[in-house]
Amino acid sequence: MFNFLYLYLLAAGILVFPVLLSAEGAGMSPEALEKIIEKLRPLHEKLGQPKFGDWLSIHREPGQTFDEYLRYKPITPQGKRHVIYVQPLGDFTGTQRRIVTLTADFMGRYFNLPVEIKETLPLSVIPAKARRTNPAWGMKQVLSTYIMESVLKPSLPKDAAAYIAFTSSDLWPGEDWNFVFGQASVRERVGVWSIYRNGDPDGSAADFRMCLLRTMKTATHETGHMFSMLHCILYQCNMCGSNHREESDRRPIFLCPECLAKLCWATRSDPAARYKKLADFFSKNGFNAEAEFCRRSIQALDLE
Ligand SMILES: [Zn+2]
Ligand SMILES: [Zn+2]
């Protein structure tokens, strides 16, 4: 199960974040990307031993270097399937809607792909059989597998690289589970995430940023799976598995050099141009440390 993620809601109408493809259309060769990996390695922290309860203390993972990824013949968003669709589902406050819109903007920059926000669907599309009150905690929940199978799959756009529902409702994936942050089906290209457990975006500015960062991490981690990126076991990296909130908060939103090379190869992105677009987003939205990391990465890429 590709558990994990969050999500949210909506915005009437359709918003499109076009991608600037200037000089990025062709993408870099695997050899050029290998050189990029070496330049960026010093900026990234090795993963080290898992703590008690962490993902890798429970799950055995094979890991995946850039070279192994290429041999795996990954699914990539090239050709006809190149648009990321965001499907708001249910009611959202104005602030929550802003989280969804900003996350969609961020995903476009992260994956170098156009992102389209579809018209919001009401929660009434979910029948009673796919809802419950959590037996232990009492909150209302929606069945994540129903959303993927019965809401998203039947209306998957032909040009979708990924079709992702965002909801403010809490999710559960089936029997024996209390909840999931989100869930994705790599093969079907659909996923759902909830922002329910991401904190209160209507609190302070710091609370808003926390909710946004958590939502963006989940959205980009799960979409990375859709492009055949496996869990990372080498570095502190957005593609590491997370077993609990403290662990996912500990992970950076950035990709380690190996995972970055996979993404740049899959999406034909230029690493420096991508870091510039991310730096612009982080600066505009008050993520100073993240903006600074982008600048240091660009500097490292400039070195001969
Ligand atoms: Zn994962
Ligand atoms: Zn990684």
SSE layout and pairings?
Blueprint: E1 2-3, E2 15-17, H1 30-40, H2 55-58, H3 66-71, E3 83-89, H4 94-111, E4 115-117, E5 131-133, E6 140-143, H5 144-152, E7 160-167, E8 170-172, E9 182-185, E10 190-194, H6 205-226, H7 245-250, H8 257-267, H9 271-284, H10 288-302
Helix pairs in contact: 1-8, 4-6, 4-9, 9-10
Question: Care to describe what's here?
Answer:
The structure is a single chain. With 304 residues, this protein is α/β, with parallel strands linked by helices. It contains ten helices and ten strands. It has helices spanning 30-40, 55-58, 66-71, 94-111, 144-152, 205-226, 245-250, 257-267, 271-284, 288-302, and strands at 2-3, 15-17, 83-89, 115-117, 131-133, 140-143, 160-167, 170-172, 182-185, 190-194. Helix 9 packs antiparallel against helix 10 (288-302). One zinc ion binds at residues 2, 4, 221, 225, 231, 241.
